[in-house]
Design brief:
The protein is mainly alpha-helical and 106 residues long. It has a single domain (8-103), classed as Multidrug-efflux Transporter Regulator, Chain: A, Domain 2. It has helices spanning 10-17, 21-30, 47-62, 67-76, 81-103, and strands spanning 8-9, 37-39, 42-45. The chain has a three-stranded antiparallel beta sheet. A hairpin with a 2-residue loop joins strand 2 and strand 3. The chain is globular and about 60 Å long.
Length: 106
């Protein structure tokens, strides 16, 4: 069984989110929650970034928020999608460690 990808290039994210790459680059400037890694002039997005971008797209395109309104909505939620995904990843990792400990018990 293969491992899930950790990083996605901007073209892949553009297809997943359903917006052109230039929109993703613009959103990066407007929303501090979106911070892809940069490696040799390439943007590398994590699943947390993609989740955040999908939330931003929902706010802007589906619910009709302005950029300012979307920023306020994300801030009002308390946790950004990235923070929520990071928390869930942390919980999953801890559960995996517990499982491995228990599965090696006699």
């Amino acid at each position: 069984m293969g491992r899930a990808k950790v990083y996605y290039k901007i073209g892949e994210v553009s297809e997943l989110v359903g917006v052109p790459p230039h929109v993703l680059r613009y959103w990066e400037k407007e929303f501090p929650q979106v911070r892809p890694r940069r490696l040799a002039n390439h943007r590398l997005y994590r699943k947390e970034d993609i989740a955040c971008l999908l939330k931003i797209k929902e706010l802007l395109h589906t619910r009709g928020f302005t950029i300012k309104g979307a920023k306020a909505a994300l801030k009002a939620e308390g946790r950004t999608p990235r923070e929520e995904t990071s928390l869930l990843k942390h919980i999953r990792d801890e559960l995996q460690e517990i499982y491995e400990i228990l599965s090696h018990e006699p």
